[in-house]
Design a protein that fits this description.
Elements: E1 2-4, H1 12-15, H2 19-27, E2 32-36, E3 39-44, E4 52-60, E5 68-75, H3 78-83, H4 87-105, H5 109-123
Antiparallel strand pairs: 1-5, 2-3, 3-4, 4-5
Length: about 130
């Protein structure tokens, strides 16, 4: 599961007031909720795009800190999807993920990667 920060000065609830509706718009019907890493996340059991097997997404709430977007995409092997003749679905899945994450966080893919790199560097143990 990955957690994504919002842009400086922004909050997830401001960017996506109805997170459940946004998840359904991008990925398909929400089947319910599930706890993961102490956070109650929405579950899409049967995503619209055949690349995805299952999706967990929601707000990761921390006291004293801004909420983050927590997301876990369970995906099928790309070769299997393409072999079934769903090559367009594979490309669409990448676009769906990037569009959803950018809409939620206000950060493009490059900015999210850079932020993840900085987080890993900050979490590295001092030797």
């Amino acid at each position: 599961m990955k957690e994504y920060k919002m842009r400086r000065g922004e909050h997830l609830s401001d960017r996506m007031a109805d997170l459940r509706a946004e998840i359904e718009e991008y990925f398909g019907a929400v089947a319910g909720t599930e706890e993961a890493n102490g956070h109650e996340l929405y579950v899409v059991e049967d995503p619209d795009n055949p690349v995805f097997d299952r999706i967990l997404a929601g707000a990761a709430e921390y006291s004293g800190k801004k909420d983050r977007l927590a997301v876990h995409f369970e995906e099928r092997d790309a070769e299997d999807v393409i072999a079934e003749g769903n090559a367009d679905a594979a490309a669409e899945a990448v676009d769906l993920k990037n569009d959803f994450l950018e809409a939620a966080t206000g950060r493009d893919a490059k900015s999210r990667r850079d932020s993840m790199k900085r987080q890993v560097e900050d979490d590295a143990p001092d030797v």
